[in-house]
Amino acid sequence: MFAQSLNLLVVAILYISSFASAHNVLLPANGRRCFYENLKKDDEFTVSFQYGNRDSESNEELRGDLVIFGQNRNDILVSIRDVTYGEQTLTAPYTGKFEYCFLNERSGVATKDVSFNIWGTKFVDVNDEDDTLEGSVRKLTRLINEVKNEQEYLILRERTHRNTAESTNDRVKWWSIAQLGVVVVNTVFQIFYLKRFFEVTSIV
């Protein structure tokens, strides 16, 4: 019984590690980064992504595009435009090499990066929740990927919001200092003016 449970655990780990991977790449200004996957007909391929900024001082929420091409480069199977994050599942219509590209072609930002995860299944339904070991492992893989993607999205959002808060605090600080300076200058001017106003002059 123990040996059988151990074998099931090993199979589950191998299954998960075979179909999931995570990456983070820097996008060139006005350019793109492309990757390839070899799929057989009816294989399922899922990519989830989140655009971010490697500039720790920036609080701008960056956007980008995702395009998935078929064997023919002009054959666009998926096109997602001007988004900060997303997820897309593609069922291969035929056997071949499929290219997926993250685009930064409409932006000159040189610090934009994209974090993405890819995973897939071969001739199976990822939502099939049957009682077999393979079905249970597929369900577990799908849930783990959903949690992982949500955590990565929250991390990037927290970084963006933190930068925004720090920038706002800096502006409030300098505005307060400027107001204090105006008050001090105004006070000195009033004291000097009143002193001059009440000054007694004598004519000899």
Automatic annotation (TrEMBL):
Topological category with respect to the lipid bilayer: Single-pass membrane protein; Single-pass type I membrane protein
Alphabetically ordered keywords of this record: ER-Golgi transport, Membrane, Signal, Transmembrane, Transmembrane helix, Transport
Cited PROSITE patterns: GOLD
Signal peptide: 1-22
Principal place of residence: membrane
A Pfam short name: EMP24_GP25L
Keyword Signal annotated: yes
One annotated GO biological process: endoplasmic reticulum to Golgi vesicle-mediated transport
Bilayer-crossing regions: 174-194
Keyword Phosphoprotein assigned: no
InterPro entries the UniProt entry points to: Emp24-like (IPR015720), GOLD_dom (IPR009038), GOLD_dom_sf (IPR036598)
Residue ranges of domain GOLD in the record: 32-120
GO cellular component terms listed in the entry, alphabetical order: cytoplasm; endomembrane system; membrane
Compartments where located: Endomembrane system; Membrane
Family under the similarity heading: Belongs to the EMP24/GP25L family.
Name the record gives this protein: GOLD domain-containing protein
Protein source organism: Tetrapisispora phaffii (strain ATCC 24235 / CBS 4417 / NBRC 1672 / NRRL Y-8282 / UCD 70-5) (Yeast)
Gene name in the database record: TPHA0D01080
